[in-house]
Amino acid sequence: MRKIIDIEALVHWTLGDQGVAHEFGEEAYGAGYAASAWEPIERLAQLGTLVDGRGGSRFGSGDIHRDALTIGDAIRSMEPDARGMVICYGITGGRPSWDYRPELRAVIGANGKPALIRERVKGLRGWRDDVVGCELELRPSIEVTREAWARYQAWWMGLAFLQALLRGRLADHEATGPRAPFEPWIGTDAEALVGVVFREHGVRGDTMADAPPRKTA
Prior knowledge:
Blueprint: E1 3-6, H1 7-17, H2 66-76, H3 80-92, E2 103-106, E3 116-123, E4 126-134, E5 136-139, H4 142-165, E6 173-176, H5 189-200, E7 215-216
Parallel strand pairs: 1-6
Antiparallel strand pairs: 2-5, 3-4, 3-7
Helix pairs in contact: 1-2, 1-3, 3-4
């Protein structure tokens, strides 16, 4: 009977426990991927030796499981960027970071004080500029947060594609999943905040832009 196992765990077993990652050259990670500054753990993918839990390297031992070799071949056939993410996170058993917690903060002007938003209003003595608030920005920015989410989803889709590639090809395992959620940020405060700001405030760059008649000081 074949062992049913989630694709994420199966990749980690293949690359880490079985040592198939030793067979991948740097080119397998995709152009520029190993130099990415997103995750320091990605550098682990370039180590010369991977050691399993029994204390010895499996590379060259001749006892790599036949399914692990099949999975390695399937990973090699993937598109470079997806292959790079599957390999790097598969070796470490980690996932791309997505749990960013953007916060609205006041924009600090050149004078070291919050940048105020003024609105031209008419009073009893004529027109005047009233302070109606201060300019706000998200930190981390919407762009950083959404890019991290896109990266996580690209990793997830890489696993899903690999799982499809392996259907009917393994002798002793059956890959399922991925069990990891596709959008783990749904329902979080970060998802709600990014969605509201993006839809309602016409975000430009990192800052919440307001209507043209208002001016900052």
